[in-house]
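Q&A log
Question type: sequence-to-structure
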Amino acid sequence: MKRINGSVIIILFCLASVYAQEVIPLYEGLAPGSESWNWSEATYKNEALNLNIVYNVSQPTLTAFLPDEGKANGTSIIVAPGGAFHILSIDNEGYAVAKWLNSKGITAFVLKYRLVKSESENPIAELMPLMADFNKLDQINAPVVQMANQDGLAAVKYVREHAAGFGIEPDRIGFMGFSAGATLTLSVAQTATEENRPDFIAPIYPYEKAVLGIAVPEARIPVFIAAASDDELGLALHSVDIYTKWLNAKQPAELHMYEKGGHGFGMQKKHTTSDHWISDFETWLKFQKFIPE
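Response status: OK
Response body:
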């Protein structure tokens, strides 16, 4: 074995630091309300889609993705992947989104919120039968949705309190999510106080029935909503209903309903108009002055 000299070790360490993302625990010690949870977060590889799936999250975290030096524009967005509160589609609806946001000068934080415990090492196989009965799924999920909402509110509070350290503006903090993450996004907006309220939100193909809070907030929160008409879970009209409520509350609201794309398109290319949702989101961010033209 050849000896590696000190300078090479330093170079390798620096390179590792550049490409590593900072993982931030949301709570000191155990998460409140789930102190008895003794299982550990795990990752499952979805071979069919070549995507990683995270499950059994018991200690919620934020993973910070920072734009290249000199590129940050002061806006930040917390990203909540979806997965029916049982899994997190961490690649398609988390890390890929964060990297795209970085390319636009936005500081991103991928949220791993608490999930229903999986009893096997194949969480997708466990989840699929439950998707046939949303009422049963909602009953199973209800306690965890409350915890996930706590995690979302804690995430906004953390980012706002540490805005200066990340070089971001405390009044330009967004929250976006996909499917269950979109449900969480709306719940955060509707249950927040001033200290943990996002400044704008983007629920992407949300499930409305599990949203917490009873009304659209009075504080100004622009909303960008996107979904597909052919959503196989039947959630297209959920987005329409949310848009209507936001509009009736005289909140800034924009809805993009793509003819094709299904549920869970995220950053995947489907060769439909849903492929362009992220560029539509960019246009909206510019219009709202959250990023420069």
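Response note: Residues 134-161 form the longest helix (28 residues).
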